[in-house]
Amino acid sequence: MTQHHDSGAQPEHHPLLGRRVAVATMHGKEAVLVPPLQQRLGIEAVLANGLDTDAFGTFVGDVPRLGTALETARRKARAGMERCGTRTAIASEGSFGPHPSVPLLPLAAELVLLLDDELGLEVVAEDVGIETNFAGVDVTDMAAAHAFAQRIGFPSHQLVLMVAGEPSATVRGIGERERLDALLPPLLRRHGIVQLRSDMRADRNPTRMRAIARAAERLAERVACRCVGCGWPGYGAIDVERGLPCAECGEPSELVRAVVHGCARCSVRHEVPRSDGRTSCDPGQCSWCNP
Ligand SMILES: [Zn+2]
Ligand SMILES: [Zn+2]
């Protein structure tokens, strides 16, 4: 473990203290993105009013997202800085899809990002999990529609109606049973099949808003955390160490042994034990005991 010290000691105050921060978001996400950073760093949030983040991609397929979630969040943050005339911005981007190892399970990932051009700082945090109502179904009758609505947590979680090949027929933000019951029957009579989706916009989807809130909390914690060597913000997890030893033979396995925390600017690093407290692995996961 080595450290070097840049010019002088670390500043007394966090360099982002009281910073004006553009909030590049729609759909009410500022309600969960801003408070954690306000509490820790007293930032002054400036809402990027009029910024159409839907232009960067939507969840109903009318505007496809180009690039990864991280690239998209960066583009949103840049657009927010331009609109608000700040050198700092926060943005978020969600991704939903089938679980990579359990095909029938949906996986949700919320990425939040802070960019600061004055320092040249980028800090990212995520919330990844299976707690999501991301789903869709094709229905031919009202009973199936009501069953789907119940499954996704309607009406506190809203619905989207879509007709294949007819984007102009899409209706988002359905949050009342009466509205669903009025809109759907004529569509069914005309098209036979109607696609129902969970509305993934954050202000229509409390499950998603909670996930963004968790990611935002992590982001603020990480931005506030400074390197003990040079004072640079954003100190936190940068890598993992594999080699969790086998409980039987003690040989290292492929499983993660520790998380490496580090500084983005200097070489200060330290290892943090696994959060689940495991210090050894099952012989079944050992390539010596169970080749
Ligand atoms: Zn073993
Ligand atoms: Zn450092």
Provide structural commentary.
- By secondary structure, this protein is of the alpha+beta class.
- It has three domains: 20-131 and 203-226, Alpha-Beta Complex (Maf protein), CATH 3.90.950.10; 136-198; 237-285, no CATH class.
- It has helices spanning 30-41, 69-84, 142-151, 177-191, 206-224; strands spanning 20-24, 44-47, 88-98, 106-116, 121-129, 136-139, 159-162, 171-174, 194-198, 236-242, 256-262, 269-273.
- The strands form three sheets. The protein has a five-stranded mixed sheet.
- α1 packs parallel to α5 (206-224).
- The two termini are 34 Å apart.
Defining key terms:
291 residues, alpha+beta, Maf protein, five-stranded mixed β-sheet, four-stranded antiparallel β-sheet, 26% strand, binds zinc ion
Summarize the helices and strands and which ones pair or pack:
Elements: E1 20-24, H1 30-41, E2 44-47, H2 69-84, E3 88-98, E4 106-116, E5 121-129, E6 136-139, H3 142-151, E7 159-162, E8 171-174, H4 177-191, E9 194-198, H5 206-224, E10 236-242, E11 256-262, E12 269-273
Parallel strand pairs: 1-2, 1-3
Antiparallel strand pairs: 3-4, 4-5, 6-9, 7-8, 7-9, 10-11, 11-12
The chain binds zinc ion (2 copies).
Residues 227, 229-230, 232, 263, 265-266, 268 line the site of one zinc ion.
Residue fraction in strands: 25-35%
SSE pattern, N- to C-terminal: EHEHEEEEHEEHEHEEE
Discrete helix count: 5
The hetero compounds bound to this protein are:
zinc ion
Enumerate the spans where pLDDT stays under 50 for 5 or more consecutive residues.
1-8
Q: Kindly identify the CATH topology of the largest domain.
A: Maf protein
User: What would CATH call the class of the largest domain?
Assistant: Alpha Beta
Number of domains: 3
First-last Cα distance? 34 Å
Mean pLDDT: 91
Question: Going across the major beta sheet, what is the strand order?
Answer: 2-1-3-4-5
Sum up the overall morphology in one term: flat
Find the structural class using helix and strand composition.
alpha+beta
What share of residues is helical?
Answer: 10-25%
- Gyration radius (Cα, Å) is 23 Å
Largest sheet: 5 strands, mixed
